[in-house]
Design brief:
The chain is built from 5 helices and 13 strands. By secondary structure, it is α+β, with helices and mostly antiparallel strands. Bound molecules: calcium ion and copper (II) ion.
Length: 364
């Protein structure tokens, strides 16, 4: 009996710890995948995602913690979603695939087009040059609240020259294409008879049939010491320690696939989704109640941080994601980007509905 108060204290301390670490996880209910078998032979390079009902979102506190450092807090509340089955590209679209599209259509990407005075009436003439946004490591430690320290607009950067005119993609046919703006991704998808995934489809697919796991492969970042995704190690944004074997982008299929045989659903490059971005969209769905059926995103974009920009959702995180600044290789966390802005860590993959050539009713 003497030890009783002591035991109680321990028990309380333990249970509050448990709530801190796993309380959000309890909101995840099991994924119930559809049982239907694939409707036809898989289109080349695509895998069947059965669809079903799952809990969408990420258990993050938004303040940085050991479990979920620096993940954004727009990925809650966790809510129940149903998606229909679909085909999905097993990998991100590669340079050689994108080149085929460009050769067939003569398509010119946004980054290759010279911005006009009409589009940007107040911009000085010297700024009206074709280019795109490129990451460069800093030569010293910098505060992590100013991304202009490591991102800059580089004249001549585009998908053929991802880091600027001095760079190229020779020998990189199997690398994901990057410096892709949303209209570029859409144009490719249309040409391929496909479309871009909704955010719900992307997350259902990324979870690979698992329920409420931290990563697309499970709860441990490096199971058995194995690297499961291309991310950043070391001090961000100064020096990537390259412990996972890849500085910058890795060729597709460099890391193990998830439960649906999809590669790089976390890390390597961010990927476009078709949903407009709003940080409060999950709250809107939760307030509505019930199971959201094939959600297509909000009707219009709004990011309070940059209210004049039209942004769509990015998913998956990239080779720049790390545990100090942005750990959005955590499944269920969200990214966002202005639709006409490509970067050297942003690409895409496509999906296709069974039997209708990939067309899908959307309200945008
Ligand atoms: Ca890496
Ligand atoms: Cu990141």
């Amino acid at each position: 009996m003497k030890a009783f108060p002591f035991t109680i204290t321990i028990a309380l301390a333990f249970s509050s710890l448990t709530i801190l670490a796993f309380g959000d996880t309890a909101e995840f209910q099991p994924t119930i995948g559809n049982k239907s078998s694939p409707p036809a032979k898989a289109p080349e390079g695509m895998v069947w995602i059965p669809g079903g009902e799952f809990s969408m979102g990420a258990a993050v506190n938004g303040e940085g913690s050991h479990e979920m450092p620096m993940a954004s807090n727009d990925s809650g509340p966790i809510h129940r979603v149903r998606v229909d089955g679909f085909w999905m590209d097993a990998t991100a679209v590669t340079n050689e695939q994108f080149e085929k599209f460009v050769k067939a259509t003569g398509y010119v990407t946004i980054a290759e087009r010279t911005p006009t005075k009409e589009e940007f009436p107040t911009a000085p003439a010297e700024n009206l040059v074709a280019g795109s946004v490129v990451f460069a490591p800093t030569d010293h430690e910098v505060p992590l609240n100013d991304h202009y320290q490591w991102w800059s607009y580089v004249k001549g950067a585009n998908w053929r020259h991802p880091l600027g005119p001095e760079s190229d993609i020779k020998g990189k046919g199997k690398y994901p294409v990057v410096q892709i703006a949303y209209p570029d991704a859409e144009a490719y998808a249309k040409w391929a008879g496909k479309r871009l995934p909704t955010e719900a489809e992307f997350e259902f697919a990324a979870r690979g049939g698992l329920s409420g796991k931290t990563y697309v492969w499970g709860d441990e970042f490096r199971p058995g010491g194995k690297w499961m995704a291309n991310t950043w190690q070391g001090k961000f944004p100064v020096k990537d320690a390259v412990e996972d074997g890849y500085a910058g982008i890795a060729p597709v299929k460099s890391f193990p696939p998830n439960g649906y045989d999809l590669y790089d659903m976390a890390g390597n490059i961010w990927e476009w989704c078709s949903d407009w971005y709003r940080p409060d969209y999950y709250k809107a769905l939760t307030d509505k109640g019930g199971v959201a059926n094939n959600p297509q995103g909000p009707d219009s974009p709004f990011d309070p941080a940059e209210p004049n920009e039209k942004k769509r959702v990015h998913r998956g995180g990239s080779f720049l994601c790390n545990d100090q600044y942005c750990s959005r290789y955590i499944v269920g966390t969200r990214g966002k980007g202005e639709v006409n802005t490509g970067t050297n860590h942003l690409g895409f993959r496509c999906v296709k509905a069974p039997g209708n050539g990939g067309q899908h009713t959307t309200q945008n």
